[in-house]
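ARCHIVE CARD
CATEGORY: sequence design from structure
SOURCE FIELD: tokenized fold
FIELD CONTENT:
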């Protein structure tokens, strides 16, 4: 479970307060969507939850651990072994094949005993087995995002964070990725926390958290579920 307590984030550059006293709880095994217009604080919240950024004040408690109290090296290790992160722009290593990109995070962790077996299982999970020996330059946007999702799952994370994961894709691939995230929640038992401004995809979530001007505006069940 992730608990967010009185979280604020202020950027001195531009004198902007991106988050204003956020209090939230993310229960294990659910699919959460963080919604809101551009500038509402979605990406900032996701970055702090995943340990990429630090809060100005307040805390994030993951399974009883105050993650931002960890030293930088400890936080990097914790993030590598417990969090999977999917970005809007894929960030695949261009000179590595699909399989090699998925294997990359496993090399820096001792959590997975059979790396290639795990990587190939994930390629199958995301319907990307045919991309194992392809370089990113020979993949479509949807294919690259599937590889990025497989890579994020490589170390069997408990939490998967996705920041606008379909913003750069066409409609057909958007649906494929959101269906895939839902499938991952079911089959891998991962808690999914995904940010989007597209209302069409709220229905995939168990819980929709809407931000407005850096504050929690409302929390609703997704499509009547949860």
């Amino acid at each position: 479970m992730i608990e967010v307590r009185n979280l604020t984030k202020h950027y001195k550059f531009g004198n902007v307060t991106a988050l204003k006293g956020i209090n939230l709880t993310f229960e294990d095994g659910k699919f959460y969507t963080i919604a809101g217009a551009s500038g509402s604080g979605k990406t900032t919240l996701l970055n702090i939850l995943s340990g990429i950024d630090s809060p100005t004040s307040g805390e994030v408690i993951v399974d009883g651990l105050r993650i931002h109290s960890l030293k930088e090296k400890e936080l990097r290790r914790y993030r590598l072994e417990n969090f999977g992160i999917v970005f809007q722009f894929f960030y695949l290593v261009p000179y590595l094949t699909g399989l090699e990109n998925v294997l990359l995070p496993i090399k820096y962790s001792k959590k997975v005993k059979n790396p290639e077996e795990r990587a190939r299982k994930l390629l199958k999970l995301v319907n990307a087995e045919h991309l194992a020996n392809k370089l990113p330059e020979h993949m479509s946007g949807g294919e690259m995002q599937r590889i990025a999702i497989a890579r994020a799952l490589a170390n069997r994370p408990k939490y998967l964070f996705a920041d606008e994961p379909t913003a750069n894709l066409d409609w057909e691939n958007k649906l494929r990725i959101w269906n895939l995230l839902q499938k991952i929640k079911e089959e891998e038992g991962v808690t999914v926390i995904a940010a989007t401004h597209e209302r069409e995809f709220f229905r995939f979530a168990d819980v929709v958290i809407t931000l407005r001007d850096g504050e929690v505006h409302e929390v609703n069940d997704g499509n009547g579920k949860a």
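CARD ANNOTATION: The chain has one domain: 2-95+158-224. The two ends are 16 Å apart (CA to CA).
SHELF: design records, drawer C
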